[in-house]
Amino acid sequence: MYAIVEIAGHQFKVEKDQRVFVNRLQTEEGKKVSFDNVLLLGDGDKVTVGAPAIDGAQVGAKVLKHLKGDKVIVFKKKRRKGYRVKNGHRQSLTEIVIESIAASGAKKAAPAKAKVEKKAELKVEAKATAPKAEKAAPKAAAKKATGKADDLKKIEGIGPKIASTLVEAGITTYADLAKAKPAEISEIIAGVRGNHVTDTWPAQAKLAADGKWDELKKWQDELDGGKA
To answer: What's CA 67's distance to the chain center, in Å?
Structure first.
């Protein structure tokens, strides 16, 4: 039996015991993970096509390790302009092994979606009931916090947009960032475009909070956009 399944934004044709390299997953090494967006199942001459996904079908896998792909060099040049730019990129990947392919009976996990919907309902309710004075208060508090905030952009992988998003969420200092978990940070910056790996941010922030700038700089020279 084989399946075509969507994993981290890409479609893969997989079979049991097959090893696959996918875009970096947030799941820890050694943990199991399941994928519900199964688009096609093939079992001998029998082929089942979803519309777009097959209800009840699921692919189970185990995370083997996190790694980086081969370096890709992008070189740009404009004739007679003296313009030359050379950039390198290594994609963050996760190696998984397919353990099972279920054609039916699997329950789709929807807690994350429910959580998002619940959060949206709370925001709408708060917006409808809060007086104007209460609406203005958080903005003033955020402005005040920003004045005393650390420069979070000194953390490798954090740009201006992410820094402002973290400040709005109440993470204004290196100490605040050091206490946060990578999964929590990923949830906060989910609306910021790009593939952001937050694994090293708390550890970098801890060094910055302790004033160990030389040690931080040495480590950042080995990182690529905050990725180890």
So the answer is: 15
What are phi and psi for residue 114, nearest 5 degrees?
-60, -40
What tokens appear for 78 in the block?
Answer: 């404009």
The confidence score (pLDDT) of residue 225 equals 59
Please say whether the beta carbons of 88 and 12 come within 8 A: no
Give the integer Cα–Cα distance in Å for 219 and 149.
23
* The two structure tokens encoding residue 164: 């402002």
Block residue for tokens 């199942």:
41
Confidence (pTM): 0.46
**Of the ranges 9-13, 138-142, 183-187, the best mean pLDDT one:** 9-13
Q: CB neighbours (10 Å) of residue 154?
A: 16
Q: Which strand ranges, in their side-by-side order, compose the sheet holding 38-43? A: 10-15, 2-7, 38-43, 46-49
Rounded to the nearest 10 degrees, the angle between the axes of helix 201-209 and helix 213-220 is 150
Residue 168 near residue 145 (C-beta atoms within 8 A):
no
Contact between residue 155 and residue 208 where contact means Cβ atoms under 8 Å apart: yes
- The 3-class SS string of the chain reads CEEEEEECCEEEEEECCCEEEEECCCCCCCCEEEECCEEEEEECCEEEECCCCCCCCEEEEEEEEEEECCCEEEEEEECCCCEEEEEEECCEEEEEEEEEEECCCCCCCCHHHHHHHHHHHHHHHHHHHCCHHHHHHHHHHHHHHHHHCCCHHHCCCCCHHHHHHHHHCCCCCHHHHHHCCHHHHHHHCCCCCCCCCCCCHHHHHHHHHCCCHHHHHHHHCCCECCEC
